[in-house]
Design a protein that fits this description.
The complex is a heterodimer of chains A (about 325) and B (about 220). By secondary structure, chain A is α/β, with parallel strands linked by helices. Chain A has two domains: about 240 residues, 3-Layer(aba) Sandwich (Rossmann fold), CATH 3.40.50; about 80 residues, Alpha-Beta Plaits (2-Layer Sandwich), CATH 3.30.70. Chain A is about 35% helix and about 30% strand. Chain A contains eleven helices and 14 strands. In chain A, a hairpin with a 2-residue loop joins strand 4 and strand 5. The longest helix of chain A has 18 residues. Chain B has a single domain, classed as Orthogonal Bundle (MetI-like fold), CATH 1.10.3720. Chains A and B meet through helix 2, strand 6, helix 3 and helix 5 of A and helix 6 and helix 7 of B. The complex binds adenosine-5'-diphosphate (ADP) and magnesium ion.
């Protein structure tokens, strides 16, 4: 992956103030998004995620700081340059926000119309985009006739029409059921890989981050409390917000034990009980559970478990490879 | 009075009524529609907030809206004479009708445009729309069913005003019902003119509803 910086946010602050209230929505935020990556921003409701993403294309105006897009400060741009830049930064929304009185094809066509693209080129481009999102047969339908997942696909196609370099996703899967969420995440990943479009997504669901993001920032109370490679942040989370989001109950978050052991992280994709019992059956290794901080949310298991490291190296490798195959993250603690 | 005598009277009245209603409605929209859009666009939460202009507009519109039509009609006599050449008559009454209706249109349009989902507007902005593109390609088309519904209501309201316009020498079905019916104690004339008005209002309302439904793609 190239590590050219596409977006650089420096010391960004945003305060919402009226006569009675003063909310510091963003508090001195700095982060960089590299070209080609999928960058996730995760945080609880009210953490400031939407405000942050909306500042990037200036739907909201921050009070302080800078947002450099290809080294140009979006906050200093004149109107004309801003409009051109917005066409290079696509955005999709939790509620899809489609034009309800336009057909699907005309929704996707809108960005081309306002950019003055000629009719024939526009028609051709709309066709390509319908193919990319798999909605060729819905060109003449209206948004109301589509399911949530299909509407988000239209939102994605519309955002891609002007060939943006960056796609902003504001809780793009939060209104969708788990199956549809999977298909939209797969589509986003596909777009990132095939079209090379950088993605900045915000979500309150850690599973989304785990699934498609390369790097993550955890936002809490308008501040970035952790940032880094997803796996690293996931395994080493220090912040209260991180622990809550990863499903580790703060009061039960255990210290690493003194003995060599393995830390297993459950991110909602695998279940706890069958895995540990199947581990014994499949590998023939019986592990000793030292501690476990598990949370069960909506039938999914989140949390961490620490098991004693098997005595032999072979057994250790067998255990690690089995657990990794199951989609779990395993890390050695107090490596011998 | 026989049908042979009633028919020409009613047709004549119908013509005069439409002659007042249609141009008044069109002119009211020509003035009221941009003002309604301006009200939305310049509001504090609008796409181009201009609080002072917005406040001034609001005051003028509310002032005009709060004067009853019959009073406005009388107050405007000198202006109407200056603008239309004469103060009374079917044609002259179009002027006070427009003055009375355009603020109403502005508020109706404002209401319709405000119904457009905030998120949809933001999506259009995120795609790099200019303000004009936003107004012409998003706000108006997205609000179209509501705007058409409003237009039917405005038309019926102006139609109602035309009946009062008989006080300023305007013709029309309302004038016939009052001057040739009520005042001359010819009840048949009054009822026939009134029924013709009712039918006209029904036609406008029903076709308005029909078109509104047909244009609205948020259902089905
Ligand atoms: N337009 C606004 N006016 C006042 N306060 C706002 C506005 N938008 C957001 N806020 C406040 O800013 C904080 C962050 O909101 P938001 O960015 O929407 O959080 P998130 O998307 O992470 O849920 C919240 O406390 C919210 O109430
Ligand atoms: Mg939000």
């Amino acid at each position: 992956m190239s590590s050219k910086v596409l977006l650089e946010i420096n010391n960004l602050s945003k305060i919402f103030a009226d006569a009675e209230n003063r909310v510091i929505a963003l508090n001195n935020i700095s982060l960089t998004v590299n070209e080609g990556e999928i960058y996730g921003i995760v945080g609880m409701s009210g953490a400031g995620k939407s405000t942050l993403i909306r500042c990037i294309n200036r739907l909201d105006t921050p009070n302080e700081g800078s947002i450099l897009y290809r080294n140009q400060n979006i906050l200093d741009m004149n109107r004309q340059t801003l409009l051109q830049t917005r066409r290079k930064i696509g955005m999709i929304f939790q509620q899809f926000n489609l034009f309800m009185q336009r057909t699907i094809a005309h929704n996707i066509r809108y960005p081309l119309e306002i950019a003055g693209v000629d009719r024939k080129t526009a028609d051709q481009r709309v066709k390509e985009l319908l193919e990319i999102v798999g909605l060729e047969d819905k060109a003449d339908a209206y948004p109301i006739q589509l399911s949530g997942g299909q509407r988000q696909r239209v939102g994605i196609a519309r955002a891609l029409a002007s060939k943006p370099d960056l796609l902003l996703c504001d809780e793009a899967t939060s209104a969708l059921d788990p199956m549809t969420t999977q298909s939209i995440l797969a589509l986003l990943q596909d777009i990132n890989r095939r079209l090379g479009i950088t993605i900045l997504l915000i979500t309150h669901e850690m599973a989304v981050i785990r699934q498609i993001c390369n790097r993550v920032a955890i936002l809490d109370g308008g501040r970035v409390v952790e940032e880094g490679e997803v796996d690293e942040v996931f395994l080493n989370t220090q912040s209260e917000a991180g622990k809550r989001l990863f499903g580790v109950l703060p009061e039960r978050a255990s210290e690493d034990p003194d003995v060599p052991s393995l830390r297993i992280v459950f991110d909602g994709t695998a279940a706890e009980e069958p895995i540990i019992s199947r581990l014994a059956v499949e590998t023939g290794v019986y592990v000793n559970i030292l501690s476990a901080n598990m949370n069960h949310l909506q039938g999914k298991t989140y949390g961490q478990m620490i098991i004693e490291q098997p005595a032999s190296l072979d057994e250790k490798h067998a255990v690690i490879s089995y657990l990794t195959q199951q989609g779990l993250t395993v890390r050695e603690v107090n490596k011998q | 009075m026989s049908w042979d005598q009633l028919w020409p009277l009613v047709l004549d009245g119908l013509w005069d009524t439409l002659y007042m209603t249609i141009p008044s409605t069109i002119l009211s929209y020509l003035i009221g529609m941009p003002l309604g859009l301006l009200l939305v666009v310049t509001a504090k939460s609008g796409i181009r907030p201009l609080p002072k202009l917005n406040a001034v507009l609001g005051v003028i519109i509310n002032f005009l809206r709060s004067i009853p039509f019959i009073i406005l009609l009388a107050m405007l006599f000198p202006v109407t004479r200056a603008v239309m050449g004469r103060a009374i008559g079917t044609q002259a009454v179009i002027f006070p009708l427009v003055i009375s209706a355009f603020p109403y249109v502005a508020r109706m349009v404002e209401g319709s445009i405000l119904e457009v989902d905030r998120g949809v507007i933001e999506a259009a902005q995120s795609l790099g729309s200019t303000d004009l593109q936003l107004i012409l390609k998003v706000l108006i088309p997205e609000a179209l069913p509501s705007l058409l519904n409003g237009a039917a209501i405005v038309t019926v309201t102006i139609l109602g005003y035309t009946a009062m316009a008989s006080a300023a020498g305007g013709g029309g079905l309302g004038a016939i019902a009052i001057t040739k019916g009520l005042n001359l104690r010819k009840l048949d004339v009054m009822y026939v003119a009134a029924i013709a008005l009712v039918i006209l209002v029904q036609i406008i309302t029903i076709s308005g509803n029909h078109i509104t439904k047909k244009m609205d793609h948020r259902k089905r």
